[in-house]
Amino acid sequence: MGIIPTSDKFPLLVVINPNSGQKLGLQIFETTIKPALDQAGKSFRLIESSSQGHAQSYFLDNIKPILTDLVQSLSVVDGATSSVTPPTSATLQIMVIGGDGTVHEIVNGILQSIKDSPFASDMFRPKVEFTIIPAGTGNAISTSLGIKDAQDALDRFLAGKTVPMRMMAVSTRSKKDFEDAVENQWKVLVYTVVVNSYGLHCATVFDAEEFRHLGNERFRQAAMKNVANLKQYEGRLDFYGPVQSYDRTSRMLTVVARLDNRSGSTLTLLGPFTYLLITKQASLEPGFTPTPLADSSDEWMDVLAVQNVGQSEIMQMFDATPNGQHIEQEKVEYFKAKTIELETPNQGRLCVDGEFLPIHGGSEGRIRFEIDSDPNTQIFSVFV
Length: 384
Fold this sequence. Notes:
Elements: E1 12-16, H1 25-40, E2 44-48, H2 54-74, E3 76-77, E4 84-85, E5 89-98, H3 100-114, E6 125-134, H4 140-144, H5 150-159, E7 162-164, E8 168-173, H6 175-179, E9 186-192, E10 195-199, H7 200-207, H8 217-228, E11 236-247, E12 252-255, E13 267-270, E14 273-279, E15 301-307, H9 311-320, E16 332-343, E17 348-352, E18 355-359, E19 367-371, E20 380-383
């Protein structure tokens, strides 16, 4: 059943993940968010996420009736003819009191439900505006936007300024399409809003689960564990289309010329990789800014690649990440790209916004990352 508007303005959807971070979501809502919304006369509907995956399932099942009610609340009725004129667009506001994982779930639930449906077409295109109240562990999106705390995020929501929040599509090909050499038959597995990683970062996030009781400290503990047993991860990264590379001499991004006309790739990095990130956010948590040139609103993915280095070199990189100065180091490569493919010789693991995808070895198991240009996908923005 859809949400029935309780006022002349469609209600804000407030999604709380009470288990995010230090489990302060409900307290933040009661002490900071609810009083401010009541004072502003902003009606809202509270949605509490009860478990991992719940927010995604909720929006997968409910976004169509929600949008139906939203459209009805904005439709214009001609009193003379009783005809109804629906809007060509409608904006749904969602406030998330939680972390990046909750945003990831909501985005994927919405897109999985409405993509290729009448709710996302040339005739009607919904818009979704996120307010992200930082209550998670990393809070990458909020940190990258410079949001200090819940009150700061609330003030930005009330001020009303938004910027686009671009999605990255992570895709594979089916075995049949690969065997039949069918081109451009990539199937989107998931959309990501923060980071995709391979190598040390992925292993760190995976192992951090055993230290979850330590809060943010869990990532440092897991990182030290993996640095102590540092591994190199075989693979190749192919860039297609326009690519920019950070030049340490000029301290500027420069355009990379096409290098391989036979394969169509603009640039290829042959591993092994020690550390590999493909991101849309500058910071992944306070004090950790691995991709300082990233902008969640632009149409580029930022790539941080460190290939085949030892413990001392990776620690030097970590020491310089709080202010982003690691990109000046010789063994650190930094790019901006729009389409990338990762291939590994053996089965491996990919981290996508804190979740994990298996990678199958060889050309058949290639993974593609791209900024989806479909306007029916890029329907999200965030208050800043």
